[in-house]
Amino acid sequence: MGNIVGIGAAPLRKEDRRFVTGRGNYVADIKRPDMTAGVFVRSPHAHAILAGIDKAPALTVPGVVAVFTGEDMKADGVNGLPCGWGITGTDGVPMKEPPYPVMAVGKVRHVGDIVAFVIAETPEAASAGATALAIDYTPLPAVVGVVDALKPGAPKVYDELDDNLCCDWSLGDKAATDAAFQNAAHVAKLSLVNNRLVGNPMEPRAAIGEFNDATGEYTLWSTSQFPHVVRLLMGVFVLNIPQHKLRVVAPDVGGGFGVKQFHYGEEAAVTWAAAKVNRPVKWVADRSEGFTSDRHGRDHVTEAELALDETGKFLGLRVYTLANMGGYLSTFGPNIPTNLYAPLLSGVYTTPAIHCQVKVVFTNTVPVDAYRGAGRPEATFVVERLVDVAAAEMGMDRVAIRRRNMITSDAYPYQTPVLVEYDSGDPAGCLDRSLAAADYEGFPARKAESARNGKLRGIGISTYIEACGLAPSRFAGRLGARGGLYESATLRVHPSGHVTVLIGTHNHGQGHETTFAQIVSDKLGIPFENIDIVFGDTDKVQFGMGTYGSRSLVVGGSALAKASDKIIAKGKKIAAHLLEAAEADIEFVRGDYAVAGTDKKLRFEEIALAAYVPHNYPLEVLEPGLEEQSYYDPVNFTYPGGAHIAEVEIDPETGVVTILNYTAVDDVGTVINPMIVEGQLHGGIVQGIGQAMFENCVYDDTSGQLLSGSFMDYAMPRADRLPPMQVITHSTTCTHTPLGVKGCGEMGTIGSPATIINAVVDALAHLGVTHLDMPASPNRVWRIIQNAALPRAAE
Ligand code: MCN
Q1: What separation in Å is there between the alpha carbon of 745 and the centre of ligand 1?
Q2: Which domains can be identified in the chain, with CATH numbers?
């Protein structure tokens, strides 16, 4: 018999055995009988009229089975990809929502837009067919930046629209915010760019479609973070396949980071084409294809202003952001720079008035959608940079100005002026612990030591908050969500007492097979080894919403806790009957059903057997079997947050920034598995460091070509450039989740970009530097140092 491994323990991850022994099962590993290979032909132009496609040369290539275009899909009644979120402008006008065809019809709108799908006996033959295809493009002027896209006379991404503005949205009380600025003793201003990112999960996207013409059933295997939602969107909106005839399987997925959270055209194309050729069709992206077809993240241009009184108290915050949507509206696209951004602008501060205007803009670039953090790193970057700018301008200490404005731990629940109500938190506690752990006091001595070595040393702080655990359905619905955001769990107890959990979330690296088993082991008092977690197959698992927005534990784990409680409750009824006691007298402790005050008890396994072999069973009042289900819709988001501190050292000769150390103190509520939480923080911080230091997705302004379209030009963070990290949890209990948990999957990515840039700016402050845009590449930092040196040299 194994052990109970409950909440707070740190067992090794259950799933790792298959991963480290090479027995993961990824879409690219799957082979179906008589399977064909598909290659998508993608636009080399950012913007062009698709005048015609001649399939004939491709069809003569040996091995080519079929070629399909957008016109073929349109003629077959296939619809465009739906957008899951409909936002409304300040003027009450809904966002402009042009169609997003699976494959381009009439016009291409970004480099990488799909123009044809070539299916062949082998990937090589499909590639040869794709090369042979004759495509007639008439190139058009392209626009890639949000500022340019809004200029009068800019190339129009959609001819049928007046301009490139999708929606002019806002949140907050404008009059109150303007009034706060009237009374300000000081106004700090900041213009910034939140750089565009490419997610680059280790496993590129892939999909296999299969059709059974005897039963009319379709199956899609996809590298998806939410297979049920793909089944819903693709079946109901795009291909018109009845839900019971469509199975979507997302097996092991090698990282998603948000990028695999959308319904992609490739999924619909393989599924539809499989029926046309009546053979399975497999597509696996290569890395370059990922760069021009995976949804990108971030890409904001922002002007922000903070009004303060003479003591440094924040009076008001005004933010104006232009957000790039790319060429089409992706599944969650318009939601990210609006609802997941503006409500976080209060940060951990008591700013009484906030107003945020966001213009959501079409351009000739890859569609932009959620990438780890999604809206919240952008908000944190605005707030935490602006606080540093204000402190510098007012001659205040950066810690002191934060403390002066922080929400105190006794002020929760705290209603912000931007919709959300924080349930719990202790920002000052996180800050205190981070300052101690980072030896903040000792920094001046370390800076002096660096100076002696000819280096510039800086320290950066970010006290941040995020909203995660998407989302209360009613709240989301008010904000424009076209779906619900609950989660489901089924707990199937077998006659032996072993348990299979069917859960609607998706595990693609976060360790759910371990942490969810810990919750059940803890709740039911049964061995950890006796519990298996099943996810990612719509034929096995009841409808679930999948994994994103750090929701799996908060929403899925809560459903699991509730289903466990139902199992315990039913078990009590069975135990009362078997032990001839009143149900109210049955106590359930660590897997034992005992009659209070006696030594009469039955094990969980005995109750499970009795439920399935009901020879002695209260059949009049209770059904046999032991299986319970819960659908949990949260009442609020959870609000994890913390204080991050980093120290950097800059070599002024080269502009190279070295991060010397990183300290993160975070509030994640109840910790299920401290090792996994630490790993999530590490990974998240590394992704945030990636944005702050290395990664930048760059398009050519005139041609619209992606200039950073491979790892030669797009710099991912690598182990040798990363600092040692201290990760400490400082938790307050979430007041509304059954387990007291908050999410943790994105917080590292949310807190770290501001932390790093604040440190870099601090190191350069003596040169008069008040801000620099990300990434803090050697080139950019070296130029800043050189430019700062020029006037002084002239003096
Ligand atoms: N956990 C815990 N105690 C807490 C909070 C979380 O033990 N108080 C555990 C959870 O049980 C889970 C893990 O930490 O095993 C992450 O939990 P959660 O915060 O619920 O986040 P999700 O599981 O919903 O994961 C989504 C989140 C997001 S939005 C992105 S993007 C992301 C991320 O997590 N993508 C990832 N982490 C990733 N990690 C990997 N390896 N790969 C990705 O693609």
Answers
A1: 4
A2: 16-22+486-632 (3.30.365.10), 31-140+202-255+260-293 (3.90.1170.50), 296-470+636-789 (3.30.365.10)
